[in-house]
């Protein structure tokens, strides 16, 4: 890959550090004193992503062309449990590696040259699950850990990087 990482075509293991093309922005998080449905025993971690519109760089689909950034800031939610904190830690790594967002065509609106989610699902609905992007969802933490692993982000790989 362009980033110097290699992926085995058979087992999909990533060697090296995979990085993406997410445009510049900000990721913040804080605790809120409310519980998520299905996680009534803990508070909630709110993640706030903010990416402004801008001009595409050489790594993007249309270098030099402007891109839009609809729906920012985007708020996402995790339970403040041991597993939720583990997911947060790995999402911070995914953010640093520019893997959470990309520039492309929105599957929701069909708009091109816009900031889109990039293969790591997030829960953007608080207190309900009307859209399927909320709680309760007993499989979400397992699913997002699998998606992070597919991007080469595991607790083991993060620890190895620090050594």
Q: What Rg do the Cα atoms give?
A: 16 Å
Gross morphology? globular
Structural class, from helix and strand content?
Answer: alpha+beta
- Measure the end-to-end span: 24 Å
Number of helices: 3
Tally of individual domains: 1
The CATH class name reads Alpha Beta
Largest sheet: 3 strands, antiparallel
SSE pattern, N- to C-terminal: EEEEEEEHEEHH
CATH architecture: 2-Layer Sandwich
| Mean pLDDT, all residues | 92
Read across the widest sheet, the strand sequence of neighbours is 3-4-7
Tell how many strands the DSSP assignment holds. Answer: 9
CATH topology: Enolase-like, domain 1
Strand content: 15-25%
Helicity, as a percent range: 10-25%
Task: Describe the protein.
The structure is a single chain. α1 runs parallel beside α2. A hairpin with a 6-residue loop joins β1 and β2. It contains three helices and nine strands. The chain is α+β, with helices and mostly antiparallel strands and 163 residues long. The strands form four sheets. A three-stranded antiparallel beta sheet has the order 3-4-7, with helices on one face. The protein is globular, with a radius of gyration of 16 Å. The chain has a single domain, classed as Enolase-like, domain 1.
């Amino acid at each position: 890959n362009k980033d110097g990482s290699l992926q085995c075509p058979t087992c999909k293991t990533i060697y090296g550090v995979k990085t993406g093309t997410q445009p510049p922005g900000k990721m913040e998080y804080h605790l809120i004193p409310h519980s998520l449905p299905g996680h009534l025993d803990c508070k909630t971690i709110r993640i706030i992503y903010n990416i402004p519109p801008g001009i595409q760089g050489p790594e993007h689909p249309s270098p030099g062309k402007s891109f839009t950034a609809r729906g920012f800031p985007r708020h996402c939610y995790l339970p403040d449990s041991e597993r939720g904190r583990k997911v947060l830690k790995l999402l911070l790594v995914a953010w640093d590696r520019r893997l959470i967002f990309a520039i492309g065509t929105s599957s929701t609106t069909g708009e091109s040259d816009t900031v889109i989610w990039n293969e790591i699902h997030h829960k953007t609905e608080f207190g309900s699950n009307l859209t399927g992007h909320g709680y309760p969802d007993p499989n979400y933490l397992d699913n997002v850990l699998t998606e992070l692993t597919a991007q080469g982000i595991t607790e083991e790989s993060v620890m190895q990087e620090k050594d």
